[in-house]
Amino acid sequence: MIEFKNVEKYYGDFHALKNINLTITKGEVVVVIGPSGSGKSTMLRCINALEEISTGHLLINNIDLASKDTNLNHVRKNLGMVFQHFNLYPHRTVLDNITLAPMKVLKKSKAEAEAKAEELLEKVGMLDKKDAYPSQLSGGQQQRIAIARSLAMEPDVMLFDEPTSALDPEMVGEVLEVMKNLAKEEGMTMVVVTHEMGFAREVANRVIFMAEGEILEDAETEMFYENP
Ligand code: ADP
Ligand code: ADP
After folding, report:
1. Cα torsion for 34, 37, 40, 44, to the nearest 10°?
2. Of 76, 84, 178, 197, which is least packed with CB atoms within 10 Å of its CB?
């Protein structure tokens, strides 16, 4: 589903990703850990085609992102991304935040988009807030809405870049719970950059440890914790 083959990424002279080889298959939950600046975000942004790789190949559903014929918007449509900051539209209600893209990009009718949005709001425990505005919600609630908004595009893969890092500690649990359900109940393929080791241990199939742009360890979760 996601395949890095000898991928290098430079920002100018700075070598941000070094010979990355990685295959992530359908249904896997992969947690990426490592110190700040080790290239975790860069790796996610390359998957989402927000950054271009410098050399090598990166395939998403067997489509080579570097190929001239590839329509990146088409690839991006199948990838949901959740960031540290939720970036909800402040002047739109929760429901509108979730239905806008499906109506515009997937050409869903308003009724169809709203039915799907309500189903997702129910899953993230936020249906009662569908008419609220983002500023009326806590950070944890906003992040749950951001997750629902990504899911509304019906992605094959969800990418999470430190989804709980900007939250007050008491709100971390509710967001991790939504992510856990997504993994365990929906079988969603997920790549998660996080410092939440409890989540990694409980939910991930694999843990990848990065440092200075390299993958130093890529192991099944149990192995990872047995060999510290
Ligand atoms: P992490 O997510 O592990 O904290 P990042 O992928 O954000 O690491 O960054 C890896 C390194 O690449 C850092 O040293 C960062 O400063 C650098 N970097 C990230 N984005 C850019 C950019 N757009 N231009 C130049 N350097 C960048
Ligand atoms: P995060 O850790 O949340 O990913 P960062 O501060 O690493 O946030 O990056 C935020 C943005 O700044 C990204 O778009 C990244 O590409 C850019 N960026 C990060 N480091 C650099 C850098 N050294 N030079 C230029 N842009 C950078």
Report:
1. 170
2. 197
